[in-house]
Amino acid sequence: MVQQDQAAEVRAAIVAGRAVLGIELGSTRIKASLIGPDHAPIASGSHDWENQLVDRVWTYSLDAVWAGLQDCFARLVADVEVQYGVRPTTFAGIGVSAMMHGYLAFDADDRLLVPFRTWRNTSTGPAAAELTELFGYNIPLRWSVAHLYQAILDDEPHVPQIAHFTTLAGYVHWRLTGRKVLGVGDASGMFPVDPETRGYDRKMLDQLDALVAERRPGLAVADLLPEVLPAGQEAGRLTAGGAALLDPTGALQPGIPLCPPEGDAGTGMVATNSVAPRTGNVSAGTSIFAMIVLERALAKVHHELDLVTTPAGDLVAMVHCNNGASELGAWADVFGQFAAALGAPAGPDDVFATLFRAALEGDADGGGLLAYNYLAGEPITGLEEGRPLFVRTPDSSLTLANFMRTQVYGAFGTLALGMRVLAEEGVEVDAMFAHGGLFRTEGVAQRLLAAAIGAPVAVGRTASEGGAWGIAVLAAYLSAASEPDGPDLGTYLNDRVFADAALDVAQPDAGDVAGFATYLERYSAGLAVERAATLAI
């Protein structure tokens, strides 16, 4: 509970409709973050959900989307009522974010044509390879245009009926406002964006339309894509139908402005104040990815790197790993069950904290142990499917500390391989910020990540708030951007959001750096074992 005087100020802001709501649909959790006029989190709500593997396609049903959003919003409202004694009916702004990429295709009557194909699917190899060669620009397997073109290559029956396609954030925003738009950051994961125009790359669209015409004459991809908007531009207002979708009780009022919907990469950049050149961030969840804002375009095409943009449209190199903290979570659950069987049950946070602290006591190289967190395929290492593995040699040192250090190292292994490619391009980073639940246990994952990437890693007080807080900040930016001579996004974050932010910075420890380098050599060599497992099991 907040202190009484603070609670009164927050209560007044909520009643006056000056609070701002951010909602992010992550891979395992939908989270809502309510922030006050000072951008500080004042309430939250969440809903746990999981993707499903249906007919070898990773998906979520649209019913699950809305059931999850409604439960998440209801929990946020309940949290507000418990803390402040009021129930919010309106907000100064709303923002929607979600996991990037994937494929949601609709017909002219706005009916979903095929089940939602998430970023986790890796069945688009032929399309991604052909488009990468055509554009001279890396098109990863999970990008929306790769899904669309693969459907065209496979002559899927739904293709002639496609009227528009979008991402998960774009879909939710559309249903809330009636507008088919995307923030430029999320759009850049659908189709390449030109950083000069802050819109889809016109030359590449023309190239794609010429290619598609050979198979589907008259199908213009540009006509299927959502409109692109930069941060700070209003992207519509909550309709009566949208309000009822989010809040079936009828208390939520329509008319609230929404910012452009963004992807989790963009909200991660905002949540860590890393939208300026030579800054970067690492977001750790079900997937894990690093974003580095570039000073210049890369010299070569690299399959390990995406080129996307900030929510303002500046060019960003992304190292995206399909597999993040899920395997760590599974092992934590096993240890939690063991504690309960001993008659000493512990909550998930306590289990994680205990295991993570143990990791700091392990040998710098993990004692010869090896772990792969591959629940899904991993394009960076060329694997179409995943098999979580723990491997050791007879002379390795199997202790709890080494086991846990190896598991954390395993979560960062593929990321480190991608970061090496950036280093070879001469990309320099002044500051690296980290956010996500993996960093809730103070000083552990942060320190080991610094070792993995060989750079200082900063974590702020909003690190565990993540993307829901980031999209709330983008929604709050609507008001500032509308001011005469309003600030650009970077200035807004520096001067109004993070001016007094306290950061905990972990410098790379020489021993950890050397130990991780040894581990990564073993990790790279052991990929042959991982690859064999996908064939044998």
From TrEMBL:
UniProt xrefs under InterPro entries: ATPase_NBD, FGGY_C, FGGY_Carb_Kinase, FGGY_N
Molecular function terms, GO-annotated: kinase activity
Pfam families in the cross-refs: FGGY_C, FGGY_N
Keyword Transferase: yes
GO aspect biological process, one term: D-xylose metabolic process
Span of domain Carbohydrate kinase FGGY C-terminal: 281-477
Domain Carbohydrate kinase FGGY N-terminal: 20-246
Top-level taxon: Bacteria
TM helices/strands, residue ranges: none
Keywords carried by this UniProt record: Carbohydrate metabolism, Kinase, Transferase, Xylose metabolism
Family, per entry: Belongs to the FGGY kinase family.
Name this polypeptide is given: FGGY-family carbohydrate kinase
Organism: Antribacter soli
Upper lineage: Bacteria, Bacillati, Actinomycetota, Actinomycetes, Micrococcales
